[in-house]
Design a protein that fits this description.
Elements (H helix, E strand, L loop, with lengths): L2 H17 L13 E6 L13 E3 L5 E10 L4 E10 L7 E2 H4 L10 E8 L5 E7 L11 E7 L10 E2 L14 E7 L5 E9 L2 E11 L10 E2 L7 E9 L5 E8 L5 E7 L10 E2 L8 E7 L5 E8 L7 E9 L2 E2 L3 E2 L6 E9 L5 E8 L17 E6 L10 E2 L6 E6 L10 E8 L4 E8 L10 E7 L2 E5 L5 E6 L16 H4 L7 E9 L13 E3 L7
Antiparallel strand pairs: 1-29, 2-3, 3-4, 4-5, 6-7, 7-8, 8-9, 10-11, 11-12, 12-13, 14-15, 15-16, 16-17, 18-19, 19-20, 20-21, 20-22, 23-24, 24-25, 25-26, 27-28, 28-29, 30-31, 31-32, 32-33, 33-34
Length: 521
């Protein structure tokens, strides 16, 4: 085979692969939309409590905290903004006032979800007139049955004595709506019997009218449990993840309840190893598989932190994989699912260590928002960077029961001209077009990508006789692989047109034969 032809072919693959870095494309929301402003970049924190939800009519809702003078004090309260035009414009509900009426008491960290009847459910934590000590913050709940026009009077899910001298209290609630509209809330907290932070759980079987007495899930006298997150399968099985430890290093652990939270199996690690793991996000797909991401440095290293991904299929977790290997530091991932089951992921990334080496907790780093789409076999496409200022915090993915298309929405906070802007951005899914068969790029060792013009990409599974396939990766080439002999008129199977969100337009058992004389000996 001619070395010149091989060199030309290699150059073509590298050039096109570099030009086509990601299948993600933006629509009319080419720029993020400002929803509102807040005085604190942590007003949109923290995962996995969702800040963005959607109802069956396509209305979008975003929950966050900002300062408001409800009485004599200008302090943080809970606000919800609504968009009825796909995120193009937004307005604050409740006549631009908080959706809660706690009075002159600080409120923090909301999480929002919407059930199948379009009832909006909201949890957060904060002080009230009965709990006024410095850290006597309780988990609070309210809901709206009329699209956010009115809200029920808030209530505490668990009245507990706080401790003004301690650093942890009842905090960081996660709200999940099960397939049957059962409401589940988990959070972390201490009480008089547990000086270590525990994972707490409550549920409502009647749409939030009443709540079961809270319980600690597998409590420990020696270990703390932080930032729990939970999903429900169709049969009522609950899967719960948190991170735990006895010292600086934390580990992601999981437990299941086969009966909706009445009993729980023991905590087990999601993966082996000793590296510090924190900040978990999970979703459950249509096959009841649980997908999880978290941030973690390499084993035996303090930096950089990378986003890791694993999936629970049945009773076994897959081996964790780094989503997008980078020399940058990656924090605070958030997962979401589109209507077609496509998995989306966003996270915060920064070239600066952001103090990570000296503070592994890293509760408020700043950086840029990254978005990636799950490919095949547990791999993600190369990510797309959404921001450039380096001042973004806490990106959060919308995920819930209502999907009218496969568009991907996310929110975050970012330094603005006055305080911090609360921003919304959407990556859409345009309808795929019929493909044209010109070689564009190789995404991994299992499939080729062919370009069809515009924003579309097309996947072609190759025949087993294509010997050089496993020798090529994105941005990499090996001449020895290209010199592998390929039979004349090599047959390629299963051509699929793939839109930026992964849905298929064309599928055939046999789509054609392509003769590459370049490879013939």
């Amino acid at each position: 085979m001619s070395k010149l032809l091989v060199t030309i072919f290699v150059a073509m693959i590298v050039m096109i692969a570099c030009r086509s870095r990601s299948p993600l494309k933006a629509d009319s929301l080419a720029e993020p939309v400002v929803i509102s402003q807040t005085e604190d970049g942590k007003g949109m924190g923290y995962p996995d409590g969702r800040k963005l939800a959607r109802d069956s009519k396509g209305n979008l809702y975003v929950a966050f905290r900002k300062k408001f003078r409800a009485g004599s004090s200008l302090i943080y309260h809970i606000f919800v903004a609504k968009s009825s035009d796909g995120g193009t414009s937004w307005h604050l509900l409740n006549n631009s006032t908080p959706v809660e009426t706690t009075g002159d008491y600080t409120q923090r960290v909301p999480a929002i979800a919407i059930d199948s009847q379009d009832v909006i459910h909201l949890v957060w934590y904060g002080l009230d007139e009965a709990q006024t000590g410095g850290n006597e913050r309780e988990i609070k709940y309210s809901r709206s049955s009329d699209g956010g026009a009115s809200w029920t009077t808030w209530r505490n899910l668990a009245d507990l004595d706080g401790y003004s001298s301690e650093t942890l209290w009842q905090e960081h609630p996660l709200l999940h709506v099960g397939p049957d509209n059962t409401l589940y809330v988990v959070w972390q907290g201490r009480d008089a019997n547990h000086l270590k932070s525990q994972t707490r759980f409550s549920r409502s079987d009647d749409g939030g009218n009443s709540w079961r007495d809270w319980v600690d899930i597998n409590p420990s006298e020696t270990q703390n449990f932080s930032r729990p997150t939970l999903v429900a399968a169709g049969d009522g099985t609950l899967t719960l993840l948190a991170y735990t430890g006895v010292g600086t290093d934390q580990r992601v652990v999981w437990a299941q309840s086969p009966d909706g939270g009445d009993t729980w199996e023991s905590w087990q690690p999601v993966s082996s190893g000793t590296a510090d793991q924190r900040h978990i996000s999970i979703v459950i797909d249509h096959q009841d598989r649980v997908h999880a991401v978290w941030r973690q440095p390499a084993e035996g290293s303090s930096a950089p932190t990378q986003i890791h991904y694993a999936v629970l299929d049945g009773s076994t977790w897959s081996a964790p994989a780094v989503v997008s290997p980078s020399s940058a530091y990656q924090f605070f991932p958030s997962l979401g699912l589109a209507a077609n089951g496509q998995l989306w992921l966003t996270w915060l990334e920064t070239a600066s260590e952001s103090g990570y080496v000296t503070n592994v907790h890293q509760e408020d780093p700043v950086g840029n928002v990254m978005v990636a789409l799950l490919a095949e076999n547990g791999r993600f496409y190369p990510p797309q960077q959404i921001t450039a200022s380096g001042t973004a915090q806490f990106p959060s993915v919308g995920w819930g029961q209502h999907h009218q298309d496969n568009s991907f929405g996310l929110v975050w906070s970012q330094t603005g001209s006055s305080g911090f802007d609360v921003l919304y951005y959407r990556l859409p899914c345009n309808a795929p077009q019929a493909p044209t068969l010109s070689l564009a790029r190789l995404i991994d060792g299992l499939r080729f990508f062919w370009s069809g013009g515009g924003s579309q990409s097309y996947a072609v599974w190759q025949s087993p006789t294509l010997g050089f396939a496993n020798s090529l990766l994105v941005g990499q080439t090996r001449e020895t692989g290209l010199e592998t002999a390929v039979p004349a008129s090599t047959t390629f199977y299963h051509l699929q047109a793939v839109s930026p969100c992964g849905e298929s337009a064309i599928s055939a058992n046999l789509v054609g034969k392509f003769d590459f004389p370049l490879f013939h000996q």
